[in-house]
Amino acid sequence: MVSSSSSLLQHQYGYNSTLLANMTPNSLHAPFYHITDPKLISIASSKTFNLLAPIVVYWAVCTMWHHLDTAKYPYFEARRIHESPEVIARNKVTFAQVIKAVFLQHLIQIALGWMWFEDSEAILRREVYVDHLGKMATLTPWVADGTLLLLGRRTGEHVLLKHGEKLVAWIYWWGIPLFQMYFAFCVVDTWQYFWHRAMHTNRFLYRHFHSHHHRLYVAYAFGALYNHPVEGFILDSLGSAVAEKVAFMTLRQATLLFVISSIKTADDHCGYRLWWDPCQLLFANNADYHDIHHQAYGIKSNFSQPFFTNWDRILGTQMSRDEADSKTRWKKLGHEYAGHDKHNVIAEGHAKKVD
């Protein structure tokens, strides 16, 4: 273990050693997520647990949305993006086929994760049994650099003398992990935008792979992972794996990323406008935004997924709901539905607006 004082004095900017020693944490200041129970550590470091967690969450969240679809509670019915009969009338794939495809997608996800992640012992050595105080001591001079650069020497030194230790601990336990998560979101978005757009602009990719997902004109939660297996591997599974790797995430951080992504992609296909839904409240890329992409008039728009809309805005592929509603899109459904249920032969009007 490298002593705190030597690592501080060797810093290239060479600040006053007394100041640095004063702001270097000498206790962990560990947050709630830092576990010490051997049993919990064993579970949290298990590849099996971390691979299954996002899958279990996906099925649980989708089951909840499916219940709302079938229960038809008035509150939620009033907030559907599309009328309920449209699911039967317009979608070209059955619910059973969707479930089968999702199951296959998750098998692929487990296989990739099992090869991608290290074994549990390696994870324990690299991520759990680490010298947190030593790492915070190494971080301290960089916090001093940033604070003095941002606030100036006089104000910066005053802040560091008074709050330096807490600042270092906060950056170590919260600041860096939050930045890693945000960066991973951006990597996932970048990966998926350009692959997604390519699958619409390249006829071969669309015909043989991405067209499977667009058999769902009226999306619902379970259909979020209704993809061709090749697309599911490249777009979803591999994209998330690359994001966690370039963001230098720990296994637990990666698991949280995968869990959030699973919840978000299911929510983006849920088919409801709910202002209080965290995924729709915090992100402009939400169920209403992605629904536009599933319609014929918006199929070459709104490629961004699953978090932000930055790439659509930058590259001019964004379509707002107002723009979508301005399109003329009356279109009768195929005659094959007419005999099944006359009410399903509907016209594509404006999506419902909820006050």
Query: SSE order, as H and E?
Result: HHHHHHHHHHHHHHHHHH
The total of helices stands at 18
Which shape, going by the Cα principal axes? globular
The N- to C-terminal Cα distance equals 61 Å
Would you kindly provide a written description of the structure presented here, covering whatever features stand out?
Keywords: Membrane, Transmembrane, Transmembrane helix. It is found in: Membrane. Residues 183-317 form the Fatty acid hydroxylase domain. The chain has 355 residues and is mainly alpha-helical. The protein has one domain (37-128, 172-341). It is built from 18 helices and no strands. It has helices at 4-9, 17-23, 38-44, 47-71, 74-77, 85-90, 95-116, 120-128, 132-151, 153-201, 203-208, 229-246, 251-268, 278-282, 287-294, 310-315, 321-325, 335-338. Helix 4 (47-71) runs antiparallel to helix 7 (95-116), helix 7 runs parallel beside helix 12 (229-246) and helix 9 packs across helix 10. The protein is globular and about 75 Å long. The model is unreliable at 1-10 and 328-355 (pLDDT under 50).
How are the elements arranged and paired?
Blueprint lengths: L3 H6 L7 H7 L14 H7 L2 H25 L2 H4 L7 H6 L4 H22 L3 H9 L3 H20 L1 H49 L1 H6 L20 H18 L4 H18 L9 H5 L4 H8 L15 H6 L5 H5 L9 H4 L17
Helix pairs in contact: 4-7, 4-13, 7-12, 9-10, 10-12
Distinctive features:
63% helix, 18 helices, mainly alpha, 355 residues
Kindly summarize this structure in a few lines.
The chain is mainly α and about 350 residues long. Helices cover about 65% and strands about 0% of the residues.
